[in-house]
Write a structure and sequence with these properties.
The protein is an alpha+beta fold. It has six helices and twelve strands.
Length: 291
């Protein structure tokens, strides 16, 4: 297990404080997202907290980001046991810092049972992860088309390995594909794999809302933040094997963008669906404003 992956596993191993109350730490200073807590971290830790109070598997979660998290202090997660039924259970998790809620999430759990089976298959050919160059192997012309903040983001070491398809190529439609996986082997704990997918589901998704506008949520001309996030888990998977994140944005207006994602395993099985609305407010960089 790589150091970054071991640190991610440790990040998701919450400290129990009292019944239904847990404390989560923040990553080391060497990790990115240090100006505020990464939203995927809060999603994953909140899911872990909820999972600790129930014996069923999570199948859906709906969350709102209320305030930016402070990376300098731990996050306390309070779980409300809303309902325990024979087939389903519901939990509500509140993330707290400085005495205020910064995030709320409802999670539904379901006892495994047989049922009808279908899925929306991939409607386009996507190269395998082995055929997609890593960031360090991008052609020079593709690297030259990327703004420096975008290139810096993709070059950072992280616990999730990312391979965006066609990075640096012009976009004529608000959609793209990204292969991802944990950057090392994970323990055989299905709940941990669900939490790692929740963590990764907040990475790169909002960028689909700006692709056709010549802007980036990583640049200085867009003020960006996740506003809400929904995740549905359909089938078993491993987060340390390659997963394909098909992303699109059906709408952007009023300084908000809607992004959707379908997550497939290597065999083409749909394992998860994602939806997120985010703030994508155009701003004038300070250097331009002063000029």
């Amino acid at each position: 297990m790589s150091n970054n992956v071991a640190e991610l596993v440790g990040l998701l191993d919450l400290e129990p404080l009292e019944e239904n109350l847990f404390r989560g730490s923040n990553p080391p200073e060497s990790w990115p997202f240090r100006t505020r807590v990464f939203g995927g971290q809060v999603l994953a830790q909140a899911l872990v907290a909820a999972q600790r109070t129930v014996g069923l598997a999570a199948h859906s979660m709906h969350a709102y980001f209320l305030l930016g998290g402070d990376p300098a202090v731990p996050i306390v997660y309070e779980v409300e046991r809303v309902r325990d039924g024979r087939s389903f259970a519901t939990r509500r998790t509140v993330a707290i810092q400085h005495g205020r809620p910064i995030f709320i999430m409802s999670v539904s759990f379901h006892r495994e049972e047989p049922g009808l089976e279908h899925q929306l298959d991939l409607d386009m050919a996507v190269p395998s992860p082995e055929e997609v160059p890593g960031i360090g192997d991008l052609p020079d012309d593709a690297r030259a088309r990327l703004p420096q903040p975008v290139l810096d983001y993709w070059m950072r070491p992280r616990p999730i390995e990312l391979k965006p398809v066609g990075l640096g190529e012009p976009r004529t439609a608000p959609c793209r594909a990204v292969w991802f996986r944990a950057a090392g082997a994970l323990p055989d704990d299905a709940g941990l794999h669900r939490a790692v997918l929740a963590y990764a589901s907040d990475m790169t998704l909002l960028e689909s809302t700006t692709l056709v506008h010549g802007a980036s949520v990583l640049g200085q001309n867009i003020q960006a933040a996740s506003l809400d996030h929904a995740l549905w888990l359909h089938r078993p998977f491993r987060a340390d094997d390659w997963l394909l994140y098909m992303q699109d944005s059906p709408s952007a207006s009023g300084a908000r963008g809607l992004a959707r994602g379908l997550v497939y395993n290597r065999a083409g099985r749909l394992v998860a669906s994602v939806a997120q609305e985010g703030l994508i407010r155009p701003v004038t960089p300070k250097s331009d404003a002063s000029a």
